[in-house]
Amino acid sequence: MSALRIWIATAPPEARLPSTRALVAEHSASPVTVQKALRTLIAQGVIESRPGVGTFVKTVRTARPNDYGWQTAALGAPDNRLQLPAALQSTSSDVIALHSGYPARELLPERLVHAAFTRASRTDAVIARPPTAGLPELRAWFAAELGASTPLGITPPSASDVVIIPGSQTGLSTAFRALVGAGRPLLMESPTYWGAILAATQAGVRVVPIPSGVDGPDPDALARAFAHTGARAFYAQPTFASPTGAQWSPALSEQILATVRRHGAFLIEDDSAHDFGITSEPSPLAARDDAGHVVYLRSLTKTVSPSVRLAGLIARGPAHERILADTGAESMYVSGILQSVALDVVAQPAWRTHLRRLRTQLASRRDLLANSLIEFAPRGHLDAVPRGGLNLWMRLRDDSDLERIVQECKSAGVIVGAGDDYFPAEPTGKYLRLNYAGPNPGEFADAARTIGSII
Question: How much is the pTM?
Answer without folding.
Answer: 0.83
